[in-house]
TrEMBL record:
<dbReference type="GO" id="GO:0004751">
    <property type="term" value="F:ribose-5-phosphate isomerase activity"/>
</dbReference>
<dbReference type="InterPro" id="IPR050262">
    <property type="entry name" value="Ribose-5P_isomerase"/>
</dbReference>
<comment type="similarity">
    <text>Belongs to the ribose 5-phosphate isomerase family.</text>
</comment>
<dbReference type="InterPro" id="IPR020672">
    <property type="entry name" value="Ribose5P_isomerase_typA_subgr"/>
</dbReference>
<keyword id="KW-0413">Isomerase</keyword>
<protein>
    <recommendedName>
        <fullName>ribose-5-phosphate isomerase</fullName>
        <ecNumber>5.3.1.6</ecNumber>
    </recommendedName>
</protein>
<dbReference type="InterPro" id="IPR004788">
    <property type="entry name" value="Ribose5P_isomerase_type_A"/>
</dbReference>
<dbReference type="Pfam" id="PF06026">
    <property type="entry name" value="Rib_5-P_isom_A"/>
</dbReference>
<dbReference type="GO" id="GO:0009052">
    <property type="term" value="P:pentose-phosphate shunt, non-oxidative branch"/>
</dbReference>
<comment type="pathway">
    <text>Carbohydrate degradation; pentose phosphate pathway; D-ribose 5-phosphate from D-ribulose 5-phosphate (non-oxidative stage): step 1/1.</text>
</comment>
<dbReference type="InterPro" id="IPR037171">
    <property type="entry name" value="NagB/RpiA_transferase-like"/>
</dbReference>
Amino acid sequence: MQTACTRTVDVAIPLPHLLKPDVATMVPSQDELKRVAAHRAVELVESGMVIGLGTGSTAAHALDRIGDLIRSGALRDVVGIPTSEWAAARAAGAGIPLSDLNAHPVVDLSIDGADEVDPAFNLVKGRGGSLLREKMVEGASRRFVVIVDDSKLVPRLAASGLAVPVEIIPFGWALTLRRLQSLFDGVPGFNLKLRTASVDAKSTTFDETGSELEPFVTDNKNYIADLFFENGIHGDLRVISDALLRITGVVEHGLFLGLASSVVVAQKDGAVVVKDKEATSNGI
């Protein structure tokens, strides 16, 4: 378990075009902010590193930037460990050499997005379905840098109304859902659903039984149970984490506790703020 003392360092990095008087009123798009934040995180990558490659729209900018630096010769002898099949394909397309945790059990630096970040740098991740591999790679990292826009900063995890994903095995999934429901019996505003997806996988929706649509299937051929907490998660997060993992049929969950070293935040005003947590243990 990682123990950490927190030292937060805020570094505001304005977007260059926002400094020009003639465009001072321009508002950068969310995607532009993600790109600038991702590029800031990639500045931490050094030649010879083993890099954990995240999944999602924000991580995509980081993968593309790493590929650019490899092609230009600015980065050499780097190896990427992808956190999903999507990340593997994106990284391969960007020209990043790939490997896995079997060959590289210690990762120098991981860069990935997050769905929520609380003041203690605890995260909700994996709403895209890649939580297991993300946690394996990022948990094996000496440093894990999270990239988000400021809408992902929350006072309490799961209070946004969005789900905390739990990866479960397909066998007996209905029984596993009942056990998950029992764990949170009496919690006001709690609900859970099996995640389902259209057959062509072009859209994802939620259904309580999974009977009308196909269950969403992860890269590991598992299902996802989505847990909703109307009032956010109250109580000790590690106790809740341990209780979830004790349920037979649960593979992993989307609470990432004590793993993030730094958070790079893209703000609506066009600045990028870097928040660092000074850890006393790398958690490996």
